[in-house]
Amino acid sequence: MTRRCGFICALVAMLCMLHPTARAHKPSDSYLRLSIDREHIAGQWDVALRDLEYAIGLDLNGDGNITWGELRSRHAAIADYVLPRLDVIADGAPCSRSIANQLVDYHTDGAYAVLRFGIECARAPAALTVTYSLFADLDPQHRGILRLDYRGGTRTAVFGPDHPKQTFKLDAANAWTQFLTFVREGVWHIWIGLDHILFIIALLLPCVLYREKHDWHPAPRFRPALWNVLKIVTAFTLAHSITLSLAALGVINLPSRFVESAIAASIVIGALNNVYPLVLKRLWLVAFGFGLLHGFGFASVLTDLGLPRDALLLSLVGFNLGVEIGQVVIVAAFVPLAFLMRRTWIYRRLVMMGGSLSIALLASIWMAERVFNFKLLPV
């Protein structure tokens, strides 16, 4: 039992710690579009200004704002930093790159530098090999999301330190590969989304207990506890699947700052409800309501990609499935251990109460950062 107690306490502690690989906001993404027309490839690469500021510095006067003048003065430095980190090979032969112009665009999570460039190959390629290494030495979580247009069709791929090089046979589009790519990214997205994980944990902490006479007591049987967990997880899944789909398809759009602030607020409320219970029954309704907000947070990566409807639907289903798989793994790891520990004071006092207060405190800081647009934490 001592080992079990130590394990689950360590698990909760790790979730509440500010580990540098865990993010409480939208992960670092760039958006790369390649449009192939015979031997010519038109490219557009959207890279977040916040990432470029960290990598090469854009805020020249250090006032916290990046002006157009500052950005324009760094155009050459941006091109010199970004373009060498993309390598395109057509049928085994390297292609040449040339920058066309640089602009600024706004995505759901802020301003992006837009690099438009041309790639010239010796002949119209049958296979294209793309190697992507942007921010690989700075951010192991960074992802490059590719939209590849060829002969009226669109396919997508995701690059990262674990998948820096991919080959595309242009006349043999593989929908299954694209689907699996976004399943993997959905799993990754939930696992690095510390705010989503902590919200789930806050809802699960009391599921192996029941409230009586102003105190928490261990649930007598596993089956009712498991049933409560299934209702909560199902409600959360259904809710965020609805808004993920609506947001990704462009039916509903909410400002990113509002969504991220509301997500942080939902974590605070969920965690404090464990300490000062206001809602003891039908927690699945709480999970459903707040799950609607979390769905908008999941949708941003697909919305910013700007895929056509057919490619978007396939990516959406895969990404959503991946999120559910990642979520199920978290639940499957946490709930049995929590049930085994439910009778100990360590769980009821340290894990349940201490963990809930820690989650509420951390989420309160996130909420303040997002509402007032300042930075306190290093993640």
Major β-sheet strand ordering: 5-6-2-1-8-9
Largest β-sheet summary = 6 strands, mixed
Number of domain units = 2
The arrangement of helices and strands along the chain is: HEEHHHEEEEEEEEHHEEHHHHH
Number of DSSP-assigned strands = 12
Helical stretch count? Answer: 11
Give the overall shape, derived from the CA principal axes.
elongated
Mean pLDDT: 84
Give the assembly state of these chains: single chain
Q: Which percent bin holds the helix content?
A: 40-55%
Instruction: Report the sheet-strand fraction.
Output: 15-25%
Structural class: alpha+beta
Q: State the distance separating the first and last CA atoms.
A: 34 Å
Spans of at least 5 consecutive residues with low confidence = 1-25
Give the C-alpha Rg: 23 Å
Describe, in plain words, how this protein is organized in 3D.
- This protein has 379 residues and is α+β, with helices and mostly antiparallel strands.
- It has 2 domains: 2-24 and 193-372; 29-169, no CATH class.
- Helix content is 52%, strand content 22%.
- The protein contains 11 helices and 12 strands.
- Strands 5-6-2-1-8-9 form a 6-stranded mixed β-sheet.
- Strand 8 (143-150) and strand 9 form a beta hairpin.
- The protein is elongated.
